[in-house]
Amino acid sequence: MTNKKDNIASSTSDPVDSPPPYTPLPSQSREVVPNESTRLYPDVPKNSYSTIPTPTYNPPNPPQQSSVTAYYQPDTVVLSPAVSIFDLRAQPAVTCCPYCNQIVLSKTSFKIGSANLLSSLGLFIIGVTMWGCCLIPLCITDLKDCIHSCPSCGRNMARYSRIEGRVYSYGE
């Protein structure tokens, strides 16, 4: 029986084979192997650089003076058909002024009306009086009455009441 340590020691004492020396192949030649650059440019000598043509920009000829003149037309505003005074609501509308008899787009403004006053009174009755919170409905535009006036003559044409949903005319 042999000892494992003896086998390792004996194998290391043998001379190690070194790689063979490098020797060039005798049939190597110095010819250039065709590659992509030699196939594309066969007349270019080896190891020389060619200049790449610089791209040039040729601007178009200046425009000729034309005799065409552009005419601009002002914007056209198309208004909806005029509505009756009694069909007005909270938005401006095209209507006929009863005072100057012109078709105009009414100018709107908002005034405190009965809807504001009743909601403030209701908050006061249920006890929301801390820091004047019962007065908040007086600032809400959606509760105010809408007053329609004529931009041409400046007179009030109608008042739209929010609480009743009716239009009151300021007629003659």
UniProtKB/TrEMBL annotation:
<protein>
    <submittedName>
        <fullName>18569_t:CDS:1</fullName>
    </submittedName>
</protein>
<keyword id="KW-0479">Metal-binding</keyword>
<keyword id="KW-0862">Zinc</keyword>
<feature type="transmembrane region" description="Helical">
    <location>
        <begin position="117"/>
        <end position="138"/>
    </location>
</feature>
<feature type="region of interest" description="Disordered">
    <location>
        <begin position="1"/>
        <end position="46"/>
    </location>
</feature>
<keyword id="KW-1133">Transmembrane helix</keyword>
<dbReference type="InterPro" id="IPR006629">
    <property type="entry name" value="LITAF"/>
</dbReference>
<comment type="similarity">
    <text>Belongs to the CDIP1/LITAF family.</text>
</comment>
<dbReference type="GO" id="GO:0016020">
    <property type="term" value="C:membrane"/>
</dbReference>
<dbReference type="GO" id="GO:0008270">
    <property type="term" value="F:zinc ion binding"/>
</dbReference>
<dbReference type="InterPro" id="IPR037519">
    <property type="entry name" value="LITAF_fam"/>
</dbReference>
<keyword id="KW-0812">Transmembrane</keyword>
<keyword id="KW-0472">Membrane</keyword>
<feature type="domain" description="LITAF">
    <location>
        <begin position="74"/>
        <end position="162"/>
    </location>
</feature>
<dbReference type="Pfam" id="PF10601">
    <property type="entry name" value="zf-LITAF-like"/>
</dbReference>
